[in-house]
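Propose amino acids for all 286 sites.
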């Protein structure tokens, strides 16, 4: 079996993350190529004007993109261009804050069994409500590709570009989408089947490393933009009252119980609202 190239997105300044990924790749005997990520804050106005569609971002996303989001999209775009230029059949893309185990080899050996129409397959994914992650895949058209892994379709937009497989056709599609100007975070492209024939590996075999993945500059920048626009994410008097109420519940020992009840309600409501999507046979990809 020909080796499938593995590309890792890494900012030059993030030396600790690079060391983390080098150690992880050595541990599981993976040959990986590091791609120098674009640092969004280093882009000048002329460069931003060429790659970023601010007007469309405000219209469709409801806010501006952060420098980090633009840089992240350009970093992934750089890999898509490499795949197209070098006529690479299949590739794996990692960001530098992930963890995985030996099941990565089972995944690499299973690509030959992927559906013939696949273009992008997420290896790590999540929804806006983490507690609902069990209910994000369609219950039909689950295709076994190895002893422990299946290929599934999603019922709505998925987040995360932490780890995914992509082929030549998928890279070319996403490259064309980004050429017209970036107007949303890159995972809104890779996680939306409107842009690419999208699948996911179930169960997901890669996750964010909790020791390094939570220190995200992109998340900080997003909150700053929301704050400037007066959107949720900034503290208000309502937040203060809510925090006081939560403190009271903790003191009397009810907080965790009510939290579990609310999480259960969310899961039931989500499942009932999306039961049709879960059971309906997905549309066939072109």
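Proposal:
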């Amino acid at each position: 079996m020909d080796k499938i190239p593995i590309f890792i997105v890494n900012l030059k300044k993030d030396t600790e993350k690079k060391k983390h990924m080098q150690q992880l790749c050595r541990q599981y005997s993976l040959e990986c190529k590091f791609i120098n990520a674009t640092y969004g804050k280093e882009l000048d106005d002329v460069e931003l004007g060429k790659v970023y569609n601010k007007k469309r971002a405000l219209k469709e996303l409801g806010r501006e993109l952060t420098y980090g989001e633009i840089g992240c999209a350009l970093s992934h775009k750089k890999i898509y261009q490499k795949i197209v230029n070098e006529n690479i059949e299949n590739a794996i893309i990692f960001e530098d804050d992930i963890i995985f185990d030996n099941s990565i080899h089972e995944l690499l050996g299973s690509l030959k069994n992927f559906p013939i129409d696949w273009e992008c397959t997420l290896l790590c994914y999540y929804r806006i409500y983490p507690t609902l992650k069990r209910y994000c895949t369609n219950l039909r058209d689950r295709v076994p590709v190895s002893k422990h892994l299946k290929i599934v379709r999603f019922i709505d937009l998925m987040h995360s570009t932490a780890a995914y497989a992509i082929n030549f056709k998928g890279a070319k599609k996403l490259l064309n989408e980004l050429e017209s100007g970036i107007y949303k975070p890159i995972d809104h492209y890779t996680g939306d089947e409107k842009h690419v024939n999208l699948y996911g590996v179930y169960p997901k075999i890669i996750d964010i490393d909790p020791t390094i993945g939570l220190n995200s500059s992109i998340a900080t920048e997003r909150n700053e933009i929301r704050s400037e626009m007066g959107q949720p994410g900034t503290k208000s008097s309502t937040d203060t009252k809510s925090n006081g109420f939560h403190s009271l519940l903790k003191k009397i020992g009810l907080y965790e119980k009510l939290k579990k009840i609310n999480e259960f309600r969310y899961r039931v409501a989500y499942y009932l609202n999306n039961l049709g999507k879960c059971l309906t046979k997905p549309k066939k990809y072109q």
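Strands lie at 6-10, 32-36, 90-95, 98-100, 120-122, 143-144, 150-152, 163-167, 198-202, 206-208. The chain has one domain: 6-218.
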